[in-house]
Amino acid sequence: MPKISIIIPAYNVGKYIEECLESARNQTLKDIEIVVVNDGSTDNTGDVIAQEASKDSRIQVVTNHPNMGTHRTRMAGAEAATGEYSFFLDGDDALKPDMCKQLVQELSLHPADVLHFGITVVGANELLDSEREAFEANNNASTQDAVGEDIIRDIFDESRGYKVDWRVTQRLYKTSVLKQAFAAMTKERLGRSQDGYECFVVSAFAKTYHSCKHCRGYIYYYGRGISGTSTISAEKYAQYCHHFKADFDAAYDFADTQHSEMLRACAQGFQRKATEILANDWKIRIPENEKLSAAQSMSDVFGPAIAGREIYRFVRDDAYEKLSEKTALLPNDRLNNWFGIANSFEVLPSLEDTDSLRFHEMKRIATSHMLDLVTQSEQAEQIERYNNQRVRLFVTTHKNVNRFESDIMQPVQVGLHEGSYRFPWAFHDDEGENISDRNPRYCELTTQYWAWKNVDADYYGFCHYRRYFDFSDTLHKENPYGEIMDDYIDAKAAKEYGLDDTNIERVVRQYDVITTPFGDLTKIIDKHGTPRALWEAAPLLHDDDMLRCYRILCKMYPDYKEDADAFFTGNKACFCNMFIMKKEIFFDYCSWMFPILEEFDKNTSYSDYSKEALRTPGHLSERLLNIYLMHHKRIGSNWKFKELQCVHFTNPEPAEELKPLDMFDKPIVPVVFAADDNYVPQLTTTVYSAMKNADPTYFYDVVVLQRNIAWDKQERLRDFFKQFPNMSLRFTNVERELSGYDLSTNNAHISIETYYRFLIQKLLPFYDKVLYLDSDIVINGDISKLYNTDLQGKLLGAIRDIDFLANLNVKHGKRMGYAKNVLKMKNPYDYFQAGVLVLNTKAMRERYTIKQWLTYASNPAFIYNDQDVLNAHCEGEVLYLPWEWNVVHDCGGRVGNLFVQAPNDIYDAYMKSRNNPKIIHYAGFQKPWTDPDCDFASIYWKYARETPFYERLLKRVVKANEPKIPEEALRPKHERAVGEDNPIRKIVDPLMPIGSRRRAMAKAIGRAVRGRE
């Protein structure tokens, strides 16, 4: 028995097989055999093998007819081997002379079933040396010895990080173990990932593993044959996918025959790692125009979750690299194509499906990187456009604010210090030559100084994140402080005030100096009369500071004294440090003004100054600007002046933007409510009832759309709902979205909040489906089941409105005519109730814009406003849900008086749903918090009394039902204030029994309401 068998599979390697066999024959260890298997070669491989075999009796030749592939060829070689140990040598590789001798010496010191040796890599076909070195270093990385199941787990267990590679040709095997393993392997032909499968099975049988990477007698020619980076077609890639799938299936089959969960887990690890390798071919070897087709093939074989995850992986990695290198994302960048392909895979989140969870986690990270990259690219492009402008209007800001679409108006961030977040969309006043550290005193002057020292332009202008020039030709109304007041920085404001680049440049280039208006101080700003009086009236400014600055000015620039005197005793001034100047004027002004402030600064101790007083240099500069301009008017500099009104925006901050939740260990159910500050107790009850009955295996993203809910109430709600770890509670202000629309309701029981549901498709763009619920309901069912309704492509899911349908049948009623003539419904009996909706927000975004929805909702002819809008524009696109998901209560006896007039089947279905309502809707004027004896009220109070706003609801009950007690009805203290027959007793006694603490609290509330406490 020879010590070592060298097994050489050979297929069409006529150019290399002679070198390979010669290197085997010339081993210094003579006790070897060479088993060469000719796998049906069609070139001269067989002739060369025969020639070499004639020279050495140790060469044993096996011939396959027909070609059987590498796996079956290795199997034949293993069957033929007779040595104590065996290893595989590819027909286009070679060995150093002492390779076998080194291996035997290592075995004598470390006997093992598997000996893992190193390799020497030789570059072929003009391979880059750096690529060769990286490949060699990777395959020669040290690994740890192992025994038992650790052998296979170190290679294939994902949790161990794939510590060891699975290259079959880089291992010496005990031949008996190799034969046992190949006998247990599939006899089917395998493809490219066969190494992984073969290593998987052999490692399962091995008992001991030893690493000797210092033994590097195997010469691997990297680049010979088919290169790992050569281009392949999408069709060829599809074949690879099927090959890999066959290898994975074989690994799972082997694990199942061994009845081993550990082996099955390792088979899964093999699949995941090998799929990454296969996907790398998609990235590197598939032409861009065939990538979509290849990706679809990968999805067809492995499923969209696996294929999508791999492509998102490439997006993640490449996007992160660009972010790190601050490289712009160009429109034709291949990354855009990859991201689009990955986004085409639709995978539903599932707790039970780990592939789904892995897909969504990778999608989240990749999407985040892409958004950051797009933002970075846009910002880099914006900065370049900024620098190309010759008219530059700098906007000083210290906070994140909305900005106009403009290249002329350029933001500059001030107030920076160590650890500050630096706005990537802004210039920064601490770059270049600057006085950024003086910002607490100099305010917006640090922007002016930075622009003076670092920017080249024809015109330099300055305004603030709240205040802008009005470049329009319209005279706008001003407040007593000489400002135009507006709310939001948006496209509407840009149009109103001429804040577009074309108009701004047109206006600016006509003048030398532009300022805010010189207002009459006898009429504006509390009518103090003069700039001096105005300063002295400021409670936090020091009178001596103005006087000292005046003296410094007169000393440094005596010719300005006349102008300073005229200014301080006059009644005109412009404010806000807003101006636009030609370059030469601006530079002259800065050279004049900053030395004055520096001298003032040098002689001022600010240690006792308040925060506002600390800003004195900024206040002084406003006065100095006036004096500088007055001087040049007096001396006849012949500058062309223009005064523009100042627009003050009260809400410059960006609209709140909801972000996707970082939550992928549970499928998410997005649930949206709408409420105002007054409705918080009802909202709390509704959400609480939902969470009490919600499936805990889901995570609920609860979003409240609102405009005025007090912060303390929001905090109280967040704290209360911490008891549910499977939910988040988020509030978002929608006031900006509704600005400019004439929204009102024609029903006293419908609030303006009813329109908020139209905003959902925009405010939550990352959800394709959302559950909307009114806040006057309680929920007895599991809302995840409602959310998981298959909408079958419809715009929304809803429950028919029995109230409306009954009104359609009222004799001589007008509802049918309204439905047909105003709502234009083809079938009015399809009218649905909008308090419970499963919204297909993806489809709704494709069909209607927010502007369209809100324009429709502004129609004063509608009775039920948003509900009518939805019915009018969604007819035929509605999936009707089971009645029990929106059971309206019996308000004012309408069940017996009105609902009975509904179509028979409708009425029966509604009545049946009352027996087991999953959602009870208190629609109409009668509510549990106004009439605690109303239909289904006891169910409402069951939830309400467990919330932190229970007492507020009780107060509303008492207030709504408080009797007017005449003087003569007042009784002595020992008599009961409310008689046995008084109707209020029927309301109060069940909720607040006599003698209870609740009763006492209600009395105290009642007295407070009447003003007696």
Q: How far is the N terminus from the C terminus?
A: 108 Å
Could you tell me the radius of gyration in angstroms? Answer: 40 Å
Task: Estimate the helix proportion, in percent.
Answer: 40-55%
Q: Biggest sheet, strands in spatial order?
A: 3-2-1-4-9-6-10-8
Indicate the proportion of strand residues.
5-15%
Rounded mean pLDDT score: 90
Model regions low in confidence, pLDDT < 50 over at least 5 residues: 745-750, 967-991, 993-998, 1000-1013
Number of domains: 5
CATH topology of the largest domain: Spore Coat Polysaccharide Biosynthesis Protein SpsA, Chain A
Shape field: flat
Domain DUF4422: 393-632
Protein name: DUF4422 domain-containing protein
GO molecular function: glycosyltransferase activity; metal ion binding
Domain Glycosyltransferase 2-like: 5-164
Overview of this protein structure:
The chain is an alpha/beta fold and 1013 residues long. Helix 7 crosses helix 8, helix 8 runs parallel beside helix 9 (234-257) and helix 10 crosses helix 12 (304-325). Helices cover 43% and strands 15% of the residues. It has an eight-stranded mixed beta sheet with strand order 3-2-1-4-9-6-10-8, with helices on both faces. A seven-stranded mixed beta sheet has the order 14-13-12-15-21-18-22, with helices on both faces. A seven-stranded mixed beta sheet has the order 26-25-24-27-30-29-31, sandwiched between helices. The chain has five domains: 4-227, Spore Coat Polysaccharide Biosynthesis Protein SpsA, Chain A (Alpha-Beta Complex); 228-285; 427-448 and 468-651, no CATH class; 668-801 and 832-886, Alpha-Beta Complex (Spore Coat Polysaccharide Biosynthesis Protein SpsA, Chain A), CATH 3.90.550.10; 949-1009, no CATH class. The model is unreliable at 745-750, 967-991, 993-998 and 1000-1013 (pLDDT under 50).
